[in-house]
Amino acid sequence: MKIEVLYSEVANLYGDLFNIHYLEKTIPNVTVYYTGLNDKPKFIDEKIDLIYMGPMMERFQEVIINKLKPYKKKIKELIENDTIFLITGNALEIFGSKIDDIKALGIFKTTAKRDFTKHHNSCFIGEFAKMKIVGFKSQFSYSYDNKYPFIKVINGYGMNENDSNEGIRYHNFFGTYLIGPFLIYNPPFTEYLLKLLNCNVNIAYKEDVYQAYNIRKEEYLADNLNFKH
Q: Does the pTM exceed 0.70?
């Protein structure tokens, strides 16, 4: 099993790298490549089972777009051939058409708009494949024109304040604005992901993560979760 983490020296906010640490605890004999900004991605020459990238400060988005542009054709090929991508936070905007006036990779037709005068924070609960998905948002931007929704909103904000869907799901590409250790927060989805990876193992700390998930799920279903400043 091979996992590639892209640009973790800058794409590492909100503890999102614990998504990968959790998979390392769960999957025996997993190999994790940490590809830096000056490295050639492993997915060019090797079969990678899961490609991950987490959130970053906005000033690094254009840097990463320029790093990935030479590999756009390969990225599209991998997505079409069902390679698993897990992309969290504002990293998903890199795969859209543009971020304000910055031309992004254009894998998807979404457009992102920033507003640094409004810092949005909210908790979130939604549904995907008959499972509840919980998480947290902290962002200066929203995305529009998404044709491939991932999670149906139950309580919280979607891709923008008027969108009833959150994230991008196309083949085995999963992109979401939700931040923090998404896989630890959502053990049912982690088990779903392991099945896609043909990895028949129990998730690490299963009893504990499910206990926390169930508490969070009930609280998020009950409360009005939207707040921003």
A: yes
